[in-house]
From TrEMBL:
Protein name (Swiss-Prot/TrEMBL): Bacterial repeat domain-containing protein
Entry keyword Signal: yes
Keyword flag Signal: yes
UniProt signal peptide: 1-26
Species this chain originates from: Candidatus Mediterraneibacter quadrami
Lineage of producing organism: Bacteria, Bacillati, Bacillota, Clostridia, Lachnospirales
Keywords: Signal
Length: 175
């Protein structure tokens, strides 16, 4: 096995110490200060904090802000993902995300179509739920839903399946 050069060994050591959060390639002697990144969901005019993370990085440097994944959200395009780190430790960056879809109540009927009810978790949907008509399926009698119809919008996709009982049918035999 060949001997490793001193420069290569130092580079490998530095790579093993790298934190994947920010690019901290700085000159030796720079003081590390705190910087904060807030990940914010925008929904119309409402903003909701998804996460807040505090990192340490060299003062006076510009560092790369890490991209985060959040269920049901996508990062808004075109945002500057760098953060100038200030010596006072008050550097802050806000990264904005957009909701992919809203919470909804979905109706599976195997018969007539009932459109989903959309909203936000915790929102009163009793009026919309009470306006839902019973589904129709030829040759069957609708017995209800497999789950309770909610008055408040649940989080995520709340699926209701129609429960059916075979009905009576009349046939005419032609000869």
């Amino acid at each position: 096995m060949k001997k490793m050069r001193k420069g290569t060994a130092v580079l490998l050591l530095l790579l093993s110490l790298c934190v994947p959060v920010v690019d901290v390639s700085a000159d030796v002697g720079n003081e590390l200060t705190e910087c904060t990144v807030e990940y914010i969901a925008r929904d119309g005019e409402t903003e909701t904090l998804l996460a807040r993370e505090t990192y340490r990085a060299p003062a006076g440097r510009t560092v790369n802000v890490p991209h985060r994944e959040f269920d049901n959200y996508i990062k808004e395009a075109g945002q500057d993902m760098t953060l100038p780190v200030t010596a006072d430790g008050k550097a802050e960056k806000k990264i904005y995300y957009t909701r992919l879809f809203y919470d909804r109540i979905t109706f599976r009927t195997e018969g007539s179509y009932i459109p989903p009810i959309y909203g936000c978790a915790g929102e009163d949907v009793s009026d919309a739920v009470s306006a839902v008509e019973e589904p129709v399926r030829q040759g069957y009698i609708f017995k209800g839903w497999d789950r309770e119809l909610p008055d408040v919008m649940p989080e995520g996709d709340y699926v209701l399946n129609a429960v059916w009982e075979p009905g009576e049918s009349q046939y005419t035999v032609l000869r």
